[in-house]
Fold each of these.
Amino acid sequence: MNGSAAIQTSSLLIASSLVLVTLFFSYWQKLKLEKETLISVIRAVIQLIAVGYVLNYVFGVKNPLFTTFLLLFMTFNAAYNAAKRGRTIRHGLAISFFSILIGALVTLTVLLLSKTIRYEPYQMIPIGGMIISNAMVALGLCYKQLTADFKTKREEVETKLALGADIHASSIDIIRDSIKTGMLPTIDSAKTLGIVSLPGMMTGLILAGASPLEAIKYQLMVTFMLLSTTAIASFIACSLAYRGFFNARKQVK
Amino acid sequence: MSLLEFSHVSFTRENRALVNDLSLSIEAGDFLSIVGPSGSGKSTLLRLCCHLISPTEGTIRFHGQDLMRFNPMELRKQISYCFQMPYLFGDTVRNNLEYPFSLRNKPVDPDRLEELFAAFQMSTSNLEKEIQHLSGGEKQRIALMRSIVFQPEILLLDEVTSALDVANTQIVEKVIEALNQAGITILWITHNPEQSRKYANKILTIDTGEIRSLEAIR
């Protein structure tokens, strides 16, 4: 990148002294977070160095099948984590995998067809990672809301069932509520972009020497793709997961 | 053939029998009053009737056919349940009273709504009223109206007058009596013995999920 402001290792070492500030506060205020802070910093260093080497290797493998495999692997992991958040959700893993897969697939297809990105590992993997992890967080929130609502709004659901409504009609408000809960953090962060925060990606690009206007273009792309993936994944997941709260006789479990 | 028949029905939840080996026949046109102490299984009995729950043992038959063989949605349109705590949804009374029409994909019949408001001695101007501005009595009457927009074969009432004042209770009793006279079978949980004796032709007393007595009074 032109005008790239590469960080010297020695500079990074000096910057690492900032961790001491955290340790000092923890010690001073008796927060007892010293051990945890040290562990987290060491983990971050090891994990990031490892992932740096892995990415270096991954970006070098130009086989599209390998890229696809990695994206599917990431999707599976995200689905597994999302399903763990919603233990009460029947077929949580399958639903999460399918929802995230479709959400990511639609978004990536649009980005590829519009030639915003190319099917190259150095583009697909980071972008895929971003949208997949965002969808994972959204699904976790959706499941939490769905489970809570089916507990607190059982009366509403049963009233509608008693009138002869199908399970979807009886749960529609809960489904909508849960989709909203999954989407709101992404919408809120989109609303405050540039006002409350300069997002990490944009900051990174600017720090690396890109012009702010170029960085903004990338950030807008990221914002759009996060919005669409979250919307699609939340919608599919909630529309499938609500069924698990009923039995075959259309009764609330 | 009885309209609704329970044979050796039990319903157990978390190792507790809420209804225990209950056998009962309800004939078309019956007005059955169900009495018994709190927690005796009265509401569970009504929930079993409209298939909001299924027996863990035994069989319930409607028109001689096992409830499990009916489409639950169609069944619940025939056996309507009005809850003790009325739950109104949406924003307005209209949302609630038009709901049964939309469930049946039928156009709203304003004449039917007018008829219902007249029966419950309420003005049709209440249609646009927001549900949060309704009193407890009004909510219960709207919930009852919603249950009978389309006349069911069996109407299940769970202490629907317990939160009403005397005047409102009388209005509701009159409507229910008229429904029964029009051929609708009524199963009514009530704590009011006077109410039981006045309207019912049979009084069922249950305790700990079992029948204590079934008394035919008319």
Amino acid sequence: MQVVRHVALSVFKESVRDRVLYSLVAFATLLIGASYLIGQLTAGQDVKIIKDLGLAAIAIFGLFIAVFIGIGLVWKEVERRSIYSLLSKPIRRHEFILGKYAGLALTLLVNVAMMTAAFYVVLAYMNTQASDALRAVWPAPAADPGMLRAVALIVLELLLVTAIALFFSTFSSPFLSAALTFGLWVAGHFNADLRNFEVVVESKTAAYLARGIYYVLPNFAAFDIKAQVVNALPVPPTYLLLAAAYALVYIALLLTGAVLVFSRRDFK
Amino acid sequence: MTRRAAVLLVLLLGSVLGLQAVHERRSGPPGGTAESLLYVRSPEAMKRMALSYHSLLADVYWIRAVQHYGGTRLSTDPTKQYDLLYPLLDITTSLDPHFRIAYLFGSVFLAEEPPGGPGRSDLAVALLQKGLRAQPDKWEYAQAIGFVHYWWDQDYMQAAAWFRRAAEMPNAPNWMAPLAAVTLAQGGNRASSRRLWQEVLNNAEADWLRVQARFRLRQLDAMDQITALEALIEEYARRVGTRPRTWADVVQAGFLPGVPLDPDRFPYQLDPASGAVTLDRKSTINPLPIESSRRR
């Protein structure tokens, strides 16, 4: 566990050195700029639009960090040949993989936490600018704590994406890993279509195949409750628990796969 | 070296800006608005492409709808075409079926008579009914349907039915049931029109809607004043035996203290032949809604 922590902290420090946290500046600029511009561009709903934009930006910024750092986690060490010196130390291969994953997860958590804080600051400011009459028709307060549920699911989605990127990173090049990770992320949003494939095809084999893919592919649509929280619609706690359990089990599966692949790699 | 690079950077930036200015001077400024195009008209296709960003994309389409409506309304083109308005609103509300303002404001945009809007009260009602399918308990949508029937279609039976339906929904304000009754009994009178617009003014969520409500209320004031002035002209004719040629005649006869002004402070125009009173052409509350005797 101590080893995993050391590896994780070194990944976190490296990402800070690589100026990953600069994304926070871009996020804050985007939100502050948008909050001003949107008031000029649209009729009403400024707060709704800022909420949508903020949650989407947290997810997208996080996605890019997860993919582009995730794909290089193992590959970089192999490319720089630092893997030889690392593995000659008392680090077991599974500790190396888990440490790398935990490090990037920590980077993402810090990023998302800071973006969320900036998001709430902007919303709190917009709240002070709104009239009582306007506030009365909002479905939820501007700085509604209920939005944290959507942020929590975004974090789970990002952790899953990181696990996918790390898994591919253990055996393929960064370019291929990025393509595969993005491909899975996109395909994971079309699960409902795969589930209903039998409605549009006559072939039973094709329908079973689609049904099989539906169960195997990561269901990223399950982590999207952004519209629900922005419109203050109910989200049952059991839904959140089930989505969390699904993400954790899938992550465990991918990390186990990554450890297995990495353990079998020959670095001699 | 760093200093030289910085100077070079500034020089190059200046050159880029200068060349752009020369380009603009030669070929004129770029077009103010993008060509009105909607590449994807299918809400279902758009929902697929949005992945998990339906809500954000709905905002983008809502902004496009507002820009399309505002841009067309303010354009100097005599044939104002609002062709994309409904498809944009349809995509917006398909991407986010709970986008309350898109239904409420969108229906106002759609129902507005040309040249201020496309004059499609049918599409306004269709949009609001789509909202009711998504949220069957939203009394605001039922009230807005009643409002479209009342103000734009002058179908007071339908309007009263929708106001009654709105009154039966959860959290409906207590003035909704009396409004339904008044609409059914005295559909189209100015008092109920005034009440409707007053409610719009009281509950307006955006400045432009507040401006619109005040505008309609000023129009109703002018219509009341015109009715009163025309009655006065008839009274003058009855007593004097002939219609007045100008307002000066009416003032001299003691019927009015001065030339009557509309709510915009423009003098009313008097037609000596018919005794009809109209707004000055320069008055900003022109044109008054076509009502003749209907709303009196």
Amino acid sequence: MNIKEYENGSFLKPLASIKYLFKKPHTLRYPYEEKPVPDRFRGLHINDVDKCIGCGNCRDICPCAAITMVDPSDIHPIDKNKVGANPVRPKIDYGRCSFCALCVEMCPTGSLKMSKDLIYVSPDADSFNWVPLVEQGREEGYTQSDEITPLMLEAEKMEELEPDVRKKTFEEIVKGFTREQALKEAMRCLGCGICMQGCPAHMKIPEYIQAIFDEDNKRSVKYMLEDNVLPGICGRICTHRCQDACVYNYRGEPVLIMWLKRYATDQLESYKDVEIEKMPPTGKKVAIIGGGPSGLSCAYHLTTMGHSVTIFEKGQRAGGALANGIPMYRLPIYELDKEIKHIEDMGVEIRLNTEVGKDVSFEELLENYDAVYIGVGLSFGRYIKLKGEEHPDVIQAIKFLRQVKVEGRREIARRVIVIGGGNVAMDVARTVVRLQQMAYGGEGTMVQTVSLEDWDIMPASKEEIDGALEEGVIFNPGWGPNQVLLDENGKIRGLEVKKVKYVFDENHRFNPAFYEDQKKVLEGDYIVEAVGQMYDLSFIPKELLDKLEFTPRRKIKVDEYGETTIPGVFAGGDLVETSRGDAISAIANGHRAAIGIDRYLRSKK
Amino acid sequence: MMDLVDRIKEIEGVKVTVQRHNRVFVDVDKDKVIDTLYYMKHVLGITQLSFMNVVDRIDEGKFEIFYVLYERESKVNVIVRIWIDRDNPVIETADKIYPPAHNWEREIAEMFGVKVLGNEDAGKPFILENWKDMPPMRKDFDSVKYCNEHYVFRHSEEENE
């Protein structure tokens, strides 16, 4: 090492320091000058209270327990009814805070930040304790970054059958998680429980994901069964609103809650080892009309409450739309059998092939049972009153799916047109693809859908649309059916469609209008209508039906516990307003009706 | 840089991993670390110890100790890494070779409870005041419990619900 040696110079040498007079000084004249702090300085917090959703992840991660969640209304008004948010915000105790910034890193919305300000002086120790706000006017310092983060923002990839393979078979498309994938995905969950607000059944999602992470699948299924009697089915076909509510949506991909649920239920061959609390028998009897998801849910929960329950199902198999409608490639039949077997093991009696109104009358049920639950669902296809609709080669979707799934229909035309843009239309189109592959090897075949809605407002879920596109289904969005065209032999040769002007009018009501001059012909030999379903309540005698009140949207009017305007008669499933047309909301309102029936039976002496 | 790596590889019993263009990991046996550091300084001419650090590998029951050296000419970080037993964490001091190690060792001793032989200051209070609990950077240190025991809870009760 060379050390510079200073030579002995003249006595004027100290004057050399004059040259520093006009240079930028290395020192600060505090307090006239502020000390500049680095950009990522970690000082007192800033929280954008309007952006914050009160999930409480900052409180849970805090290593000093410095954060509590409080209602900030008195200092900053917040929207308390916001869906996907809790009406609380973090309050930080700076006597404890260690300024580690883990709360900032963890914040799913990015609302919590740190400022460059670290100075706060007060003789009162209790005053070091406040709800951070933007209005406090601190300069922004440390913020989170998506590149370096303790959160795992990307979800696990679910393996699926390739389109070329899956379109030849009714085998289940989704392969399910492996153990490693499930543990990794379960590890991502922050446990804040915001997802529970999205789920109609309010399942205990953080608890069962934690149990999956602990590799205790029995405990996990126990938590699921408390609110949802068909967890394995919901693990396959649910509309997963929980995932839409997941806080990861703000920064990355949501936790794949649905596939985790499927993983846990798949690990158990049956649920008989799962501990389920059952109350002592009450001696009360309940009749349930319809063995669909809401009926099964209601029956199961009533049984655990100690009542004896009988389900009257007109078909050969309980499950309603799950058994008759949803194609096998989405929901294998053995999964349904497993869950229904569990419900039967719990003591629910299911009378198959028994139609209320034919084999047994509604009055008999009212007489012989203490309460009656109507869960018949929307089991008939809707017609669109199209010209030529009465032709035998025009069929309703629900009938078609039933023929394929239950009756084993395998014959199909070469060119099929599906009317509709919802999930049922996708089910039909993808089922037709499979049948055509089986019948003709896919040669010279064609499936096309036609829907009023354009791509942006198509009601089918994105996964279903993508799946159908990959399997070669042709879409005609934005066209409305006009008439069925027949050839000289009386066979269908196609469907005339006209261009849609708009689907929803200025009042956002469904009121489609068309350009009458823009028409085209879709060629096809067979037409399936998938434009919605309706219910049939003709089994109820007229004098009782008159007593039953309906809502303006033609659903049965019920109170919050599912009781109709006839005392002792409850309704649920797709018949009531709270339904969103999916299995989970039917399960949810079946559960709610079970609680209502229990209250009704216990209050009735 | 590769010259340097080749020369490090000549040391007996080391495992060299080039992690990036300017970062080399040198795994050595814990008994040989002082000899290796001596060699690094006086034979290879790596004169700077930037810092020392510890990672608590609680699942494996080990502490991972790093001596981060800096080679000025080729601008390479040479990181000498040893693993020691977590239940009986003892290392030998390196402050006779690299004097800055003296204070880094004091910090390690305080934060992780590592015993440093030959450094009489290690183990004396350094940054923490009146610390009587487990060394705070160990992963089994429950910071929330410590805070609740030592600090007043200043949020009101109904807020905490």
